[in-house]
């Protein structure tokens, strides 16, 4: 199961999920100008970051919106980035947040688990119901693939739907419990399911409660750094130091902007930021 | 406002939103084999359908999943289809169901309202909250763009989240009311907003109630034909015969499979099916 590979990667490298949300404004101008096409500039920037952080990132999360924004040329950079990561045996989370049903969802599953845009995990949006997940299940069962379903996010708007009270629980509880239940059919050797959940990390109250309730759900926790989450909060969502990856994108990709002459060695700044994040989380677990 | 163009298109041509969910299995083999690339085969099939139905379709809905599934080559066909539709002055609904926030949503807005994948309307998923809509607003206000937000769908799983009771209403009521409220800031001359809602058409109970409550919301109603919706149900969601478009995809694209020698003239069968659908809805309104 792919989730076992992720568990072991976290055990060996720490919790950092390095987000390659590569906006062109993040690429140092001098570096950007070396390349003929936007495809190459984005891909070569990503490659430098990947080469320098492979040993400190448990996985890489590629946010497809940043590539879609540049049309076919952007998506060519997306494909090249995925190919490179796969070749380096890195674990890839495609942050696509697709959410559709039936034949349409089958097409999304084919798009992101096969062919040009093949990844290891996808993120999915459950608003249309739990039938949004079905077309991905054959891949999860037979093809070493996995998914993280949006349960509770940390943006201000998360209150609008996810936090609505229904009966004795909130909408996100209904979703989280159901994902945990469905996930039990796809458990790996370490007790976690290849169907995980996205749980925003900036609201740490309930961390331990959620961790205990969703006992076999692996978490993808966004919102570290740039969005305000802290290592101490993240530690609340772990069990024996594992069971979650923590994403940081801008905080790592743009770390060079805080370093003197950083633009000449942006990948070193990225590494330093990733190492620091890894160590902050590890030390918060120790506390 | 783009919504006025759509309103007028419905007035002139009827309610058919023709879904170009072009799976390669829908393309007659003989036609498919004429083309060197999958890109050309998909695009030329779409072009034949578009040419034959421009005067009977109020708009065209392009489901991006079907194109993403074929990777870069599929998305090239997607771009060519959008370019062709735009050139023919057809109104384009990009069925992307993206749902993200902040910078990521800005990138999706840029992706689908500018550049290679420019469309007139996008569909959006509100699970993360109403801040998912914000990055699209400048385009809606200033650039003749619009959006349809998922409110209530008609798949079996719609019961899992959308129908949950919260206070005295359901989740989809909360969403529908809020979209109607936000939409009032973007009203066109016919009283409808450029921010519309996706409302599944197969559960007609409440049709008139929803229509009255969401008074300025234009509806995109999926689920006609292949998914089981009928003209009589659709009519319940209209006000003075307007205020909604009704999507059919497979029922039109594959209509030729029911006609003798249909594969030699698939576009004629598609036209016949679209005309029939248009007339069925118009006659249900008359009842």
Task: Describe the model.
Two copies of one chain form a homodimer. Chain A is of the alpha/beta class. Helices cover about 45% and strands about 15% of the residues of chain A. Chain A has one domain: Aldolase class I (TIM Barrel). The first copy, chain A, has helices at about 1-15, 30, 40-55, 65-70, 70-85, 100-115, 135-140, 160, 170-185, 205-215, 230-235, 250-255, 265-285; strands at about 15-20, 60-65, 90-100, 120-125, 145-150, 165, 170, 195-200, 220, 245-250. In chain A, the strands form two sheets. The first copy, chain A, has an eight-stranded parallel beta barrel with strand order 1-2-3-4-5-8-9-10, surrounded by five helices. Chain A has a two-stranded antiparallel ribbon with strand order 6-7. In chain A, helix 3 packs parallel to helix 5 (about 70-85) and helix 3 (about 40-55) crosses helix 13 (about 265-285). The longest helix of chain A is centred in the C-terminal third of the chain and has 21 residues, at about 265-285. The model of chain A has no long low-confidence stretch (mean pLDDT about 95). The interface between A and B is large, with 57 and 57 residues.
Question: What does the secondary structure layout of this molecule look like, with pairings?
Answer:
The structure is a homodimer of 287-residue chains.
Chain A: H1 2-13, E1 16-19, H2 29-32, H3 38-53, E2 59-63, H4 65-68, H5 71-87, E3 92-98, H6 102-113, E4 121-124, H7 137-142, E5 146-152, H8 158-161, E6 165-166, E7 169-170, H9 171-183, E8 195-199, H10 207-213, E9 219-221, H11 231-235, E10 244-248, H12 250-253, H13 266-286
Helix pairs in contact in A: 3-5, 3-13
